[in-house]
């Protein structure tokens, strides 16, 4: 099998999400680094017109894809033939998609906005509105609360095993201490308020594939063993 090319930037959660699935499925891959000022122009916009990483090119099937959730779903359907991190039938198959969509539409955008207003907005504009910090910090905790409540009665989001639906949340979860580091008092992050969420994240961080990706997040170039 030829290596799948992943268009990559380090320290970014969404490319790491795809990398976790590649590692879990033991798929060969190699990265192509995309400079920040190259994201919004050709040749990268020929790959992803939205100008974001990740994207992949799979020479084994000839497909090019962007949007991390779409890439995850493709990798699962194409290569998880033994259903090691997925389920084959209903209702679990659809519940996995439900949680993947929640990650892509709920966790990613809100955690990303919390990061922007808590950390980066002031670096660009010289100040950051407190109202935005409060709103997106509260949304970050709301999303974590949804997960914590569901996980209070089960070990994993779907069925009785860790699936891609769980693993998709790992990279943004890792960002919480950094994203919320400047917040204090009632606006601070307290992991003890989310015990089931914290237990779940810790269990995923114990997985070999996740540990490898965590070790690679800061690297400019990544490649399968």
UniProtKB/TrEMBL annotation:
Residue ranges of domain GST N-terminal in the record: 2-83
CDD domains referenced in this protein's UniProt entry, alphabetically: GST_N_Ure2p_like
Domain of life: Eukaryota
Domain GST C-terminal per the UniProt entry, residue ranges: 89-225
Pfam families in UniProt: GST_C, GST_N_2
Entry protein name: Glutathione S-transferase
Protein family (similarity comment): Belongs to the GST superfamily.
SUPFAM superfamilies the UniProt entry points to: GST C-terminal domain-like, Thioredoxin-like
């Amino acid at each position: 099998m030829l290596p799948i090319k992943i268009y990559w930037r380090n320290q970014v959660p969404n490319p790491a999400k795809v990398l976790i699935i590649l590692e879990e499925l033991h798929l060969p891959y190699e990265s192509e680094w995309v400079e920040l000022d190259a994201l919004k122009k050709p040749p990268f916009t020929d790959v992803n017109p939205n100008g974001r990483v990740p994207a992949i090119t799979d020479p084994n099937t000839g497909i090019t894809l962007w949007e991390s959730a779409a890439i995850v779903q493709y990798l699962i359907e194409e290569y998880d033939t033994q259903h090691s991190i997925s389920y084959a039938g209903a209702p679990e198959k659809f519940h996995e998609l439900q949680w993947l969509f929640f990650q892509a539409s709920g966790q990613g955008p809100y955690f990303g906005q919390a990061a922007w207003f808590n950390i980066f907005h002031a670096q660009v504009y010289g100040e950051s509105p407190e109202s935005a910090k409060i709103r997106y910090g509260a949304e970050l905790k709301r999303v974590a609360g949804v997960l914590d409540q569901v996980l209070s009665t089960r070990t994993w989001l779907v069925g009785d095993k860790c699936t891609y639906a769980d693993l998709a949340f790992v990279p943004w979860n890792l960002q919480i201490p950094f994203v919320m580091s400047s917040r204090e008092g009632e606006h601070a992050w307290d992991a003890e308020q989310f015990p089931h969420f914290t237990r779940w994240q810790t269990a995923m961080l114990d997985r070999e594939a996740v540990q490898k990706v965590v070790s690679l997040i800061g690297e400019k170039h990544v490649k399968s063993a």
